[in-house]
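pinging the channel bc i need a second pair of eyes. not urgent but kinda urgent?? the chain im working w is below, pasted from the shared doc
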Amino acid sequence: MTSAPDIRSGRLASGEYAEAFCDLHAPLDPHEARVAAERCLFCYDAPCVTACPTSIDIPLFIKQIATGNARGAGKTILDSNILGGMCARVCPTETLCEQACVRNEAEGEPVIIGQLQRHATDAVMASGRQLYKHGAPTGKRVAVVGAGPAGLSCAHKLATLGHEVVVFEARQKPGGLNEHGIASYKSTNDFAQKEVDWILGVGGIELRCGQALGRDFTLADLRRDFDAVFLGLGLQAVNALGIDDAGLSGIEDAVSFIEDLRQSKNLSTLPIGRRVVVVGGGMTAVDAAVQAKKLGAEEVTIVYRRGAEQMGASRYEQELALTEGVVVRHWARPLAVKGESGALRSVTFATTAEKDGRLVDTGETFDLPADQLFKAIGQLFVPQVLEGSSDMLDLEAGRIAVDDERRTSLSGVWAGGDCVAAGRDLTVVAVEDGKQAALSINSTLQGLVPMAAE
């Protein structure tokens, strides 16, 4: 494939990369945290708690911060959400706990719950103390497939309950999307791996990286060798644009771009186009677009097929993109790509509209000059990773079907995170899935509830 001449590295001066990719939110100092905490009304039956998928006792941890007990606040958070540090950085709090905050009605501004959560969990991490320990041994072994948020949450809870856990991770590095799939400016200083190391510090968890389900072992193997199995597989593929890319260079998956950037040791070596187009409307699209701009792209445009209200990215994320100089265009879908000498030169879009609840083309088209195109139109679960077991595991809407306890249709197998049908593709939801699955597994292994019959 021919290299596009307008895609190159080193668009910024060497010292500009650190500034461009610095922490999105500077951490609160103790005084700032106490002032922010004192705005909380400490509501009874607080709506922010209900809005949190992991049911963190938000008024309690904020009151602990207000009284100067940041580490105690961190313990309160981590008791409900063991990945509370990363969730404080990546959760769309503006559509969850902060949207539910009653201060919105009184003053139009919520308590900054996300930043306070980071302040508290960072205090725990900085202390170097391990708050949890492996429980009294039960003699039971559980296999966890996937070292992402769901798998890590499940493994940690199982370990505290006394079970031995083996975590199988296909990549060479654990962390899932927290490590490989979010914008680097949201998690700086290798925080994702520090959090993983802290979680594994509970003991009783063996991590095996480079081990993929369907390649190195099967689900049948796990069911034979372990007392229970949890699948935190995530999503393995990306949706296609539905157009012929003509074999042109410069057309990439946004997920792969973000992963390359996250794992890069030298951002100045990462090639980026001069004119970049991102197709999609979710958080991945925004992360890719903003980071392309930060790498020195002159023009970056997000194109989404519907309106701003229908975008998967929150209003805050959309505003962040605009603040960074990204152009956002709505009501258009990709129709074709055009190239020259094997390299992308422009993308043709059809304008769209909604008619009778359906998305239709208006008949108008336009071209956007582009030397790099990132596809960010969603990811897919690939049932084939189950290697012949998909006929036993019920699927729903292309993902694994589970009940409220995250049990699958297969006896002794639980699942959670993005790979399940009820998943919301949020880190905090994956964490809750892992926790609830672990509690269900524990009850089953203790004989409190019967193993589901096949």
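so Residues 27-127 form a domain with the Fumarate Reductase Iron-sulfur Protein; Chain B, domain 2 fold (CATH 1.10.1060.10). and The mean pLDDT is 94. — does that match what u expected or am i reading it wrong
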